[in-house]
Amino acid sequence: MTIQQLMRRIGVVLAMLALTFALAACGDDDEAAQPAQTSGEEKSAKLIQSNPDNTAQTVTIGSKNFTEQFILGEIYAQGLQAAGYKVKKQLNLGSELIAFRSVKRGDVDAYPEYTGTALTSFFDVKTDDIPKDEQQAYEQTKAGFAKDGLTALPPTPFTDANAVGMTKARASELGITKISDLAEKAGDLTLSGSPECRQRTDCKLGIERTYGFKFGKYLPVELASRHEVLKKKQADASIVFTTDGQIVAEDLVVLEDDKQLFPPYNVTLVVRDETVKAAGPDMPKVIAQVQEGLTTEVMQELNSRVDIDKEKPEDVAAAYLKESGYIE
Amino acid sequence: MTTTLAFLSEFADGIEFIFSSRESNTGGVQVGGSQLLDLLWEHLKLSGVAVVISCLVAVPLALWLGHIGRGELLATSVANVGRAVPTLAVIAFFIAYLGVGFTNVALALVLLAIPPILTNTYVAVRQVDREVVDAARGMGLSAVQVVRKVELPMALPGIFAGIRTSVVNVVATATIAPLGGVITLGDPIINSSVYGDAGRLGASIVVAVLAVGTELVFAGLQRAVTPRGLKLQSGDAPRRRPFAFPKRRIQTSP
Amino acid sequence: MPIPAPLAQVQIRRRDADSCVADNGFCPDWIVDNLDRYGTPFLQHVYLTVAAVAIGFAIAFGLALLAHRRRWLVGPITAATGILYTLPSLAVFFLLQPLTGRGTLTALIALVSYTLLIIFRNVMTGLDNVPTETKDAGRGVGLTDRQLLWRVELPLAVPEILAGVRIAATTTVGLATLAFFAGAGGLGGQIFSDINFKSNVVVGGGLCVALAVALDVIVLSAQRLLTPWQRAR
């Protein structure tokens, strides 16, 4: 290799670095919309107080590997931090099997899990047997985790269940408002969902069995692409989640689950028993507090901020806690 | 001791997954055993299509470039760039810009498969003994005839080495094809919640065996197409360094 | 269920899908604001690559020195490292998990095993390519076998050896993008986290390529430093 070739290669690397710094220099800063101010009294009532007793306790919060989990993990972590705990974060552990193993082993002290997921994936409950009532599902989940030395704290108000979504245009074109409306037309339609959805009874398999029809074609895509396929018209219907921000932002229609196939999926923070004991009364209190504001609409908004506006989960969680008055 | 037993039993589970069908972790459907055959078929189909297309593109191009003796920089640059770009990035790029589906993933794999074939074919043609080529020209053969009857047969082992490298690469990369909507043997590995840990391990074993098997098959093919004359001429070299023969040439060029 | 706190507190924004990000385009503004997302994954990636190549080099170099004098070892070593080279890295990450669990160790073992064949082969070739006359001259001057190896053969083999290191480095950068499957982080995890967002994929992939090019240049410069006699040509 000659000097010229060597210099050319160095030049390429330097050019790339220079480009990156040039972009940094020209960067703009957009400010997020300013939140409404809460009244003075409400504010101090909800504000999380830092308790000096908690500083001795370290809590490691984990999460699974998608947006909603990152946001929840951050909310819990930042809430506990505000209460004075030392908090370590290990978000993005992986799928539920990996997260479950991590919390059992003690790599993390807690992570948010869905009641429905826990029942089907960990406790061998068949999807058809999951109670449709949210509270009952939670009780069953709690009992299951207790056997593994884990405490499932009270669940969130929102439930993030599977749902069938379509673009407004397509739905009105075919005249569909609920899932059973798809029965006659399903043979010509393409459904999209995650690869594992084809084989899950809380997903495609369940739809076809409970509602009694088969889709013409199935397009498996990674979770992240579940709305892209509708936008790109690669699929007529897609399995979406009820707290997806895109539902509001992109004006999607969520078909009514008239035969009540999809079980409830509330989030409960699963904590190791030792950690609950050592952390004292503040922990469940803070968790319950920060969860209070998490309705379906709020969760959709928070998800949108990460998925659509591409903000960082920790910033979104901080904004939620501030806007709701839990932290300053 | 317990960890050894633990991991042995996990492997036993994985192997059992390969051979016997069982109900999935989430209930309602059968996985494992013969269901793996569908995944295997999709895997082979995707790999086959990608390799065939990339051969059709790369071999003629490299043959011609090698024959006229130009494009050395192109051949080496293609090899270098092809090595530096990670396969995940290429597949992700195609998904982001073109969407999911068999065609798009196959296209991404074609892009990944071309560099080794292109470079190895080019080098193999350049390595053909110049005296033989001159003799052929002297005998009155046209350019096309020289390529077809002299350069191609003599370069065949080198071409096959390139194809071999590509095939193994493509078979390995087809494991992440589920990210793009093509359900191959990588599905139990990437989307393991339905198949479980045993499924993930079982599929990993199958993928590993498939890759090694493909390598051996193509190594055999390469040896089969090496004209006896060349084998005798190079003496020990192919036997002693079966994986190295043409690749060695590429590595020495800066 | 307790009545939730007034949800007017969290401002629900209107989204008009007019911005670059919402349209899923290539957005320099977003990239600049979010460059720090790539910081940790990038460092993890660098660590994985450099550590894997360094360890792989140590092992493969040792094996090559062993096989240099005992030719019968070349076949078995090539076959063994060849099999390791053929195994798809994703499969290896999960095959190792029952043994070494999730994390950087598993990823490193897999990445190291992939570099062994490349480096071993190149060291062997480099040593074999030393002209016999040079070796004879060395012996004639009275050098022992060991001195011959370290003072004559290895220095002359440096270009070939470093060529192998360069190839190992660039391929390892590519493979390390899958390391997040083993729980070791890296740029692949960042790409995968938003695989549809064009800006993210371009930046993540671009950083990988930049790293590969940078490592290539660094090793090349080292080669030029170590072989001053070649510059004179």
Question: Can you describe what's shown?
Answer:
- The complex is a heterotrimer of chains A (328), B (254) and C (233).
- With 328 residues, chain A is an alpha/beta fold.
- Chain A is 43% helix and 14% strand.
- In chain A, strand 1, helix 3 (67-82) and strand 2 form a beta-alpha-beta unit.
- With 254 residues, chain B is an all-alpha fold.
- Chain B is built from 12 helices and 2 strands.
- Chain B has a two-stranded antiparallel sheet.
- Chain C is built from 10 helices and no strands.
- The longest helix of chain C has 32 residues, at 145-176.
- Chain C has 233 residues and is mainly α.
- Chain C has helices at 28-33, 39-69, 74-86, 89-100, 104-128, 132-141, 145-176, 187-193, 198-226, 228-231.
- The termini of chain C are far apart.
- At the B-C interface, helix 1, helix 3, helix 4, helix 7 and helix 9 of B face helix 3, helix 4, helix 5, helix 7 and helix 8 of C.
Question: Which architecture of chain B per CATH?
Answer: Orthogonal Bundle
Q: For this structure, what is the CATH class of chain C?
A: Mainly Alpha
> Helix proportion of residues of chain B, in percent?
over 70%
Structural class of chain B: mainly alpha
Q: Tell me the Rg of chain C in angstroms.
A: 24 Å
| CATH architecture descriptor of chain C | Orthogonal Bundle
End-to-end gap of chain C? 82 Å
Helix content of chain C: over 70%
Along the chain, the helix and strand elements of chain C come as HHHHHHHHHH
The structural domain count of chain B equals 1
Number of extended strands of chain C:
0
Gyration radius over CA of chain B: 22 Å
3D shape of chain B: elongated
Q: Please state roughly what percent of the residues of chain B sit in beta strands, choosing from under 5%, 5-15%, 15-25%, 25-35%, 35-45% or over 45%.
A: under 5%
CATH topology of chain C, by name, is MetI-like fold
- Give the termini separation of chain B: 49 Å
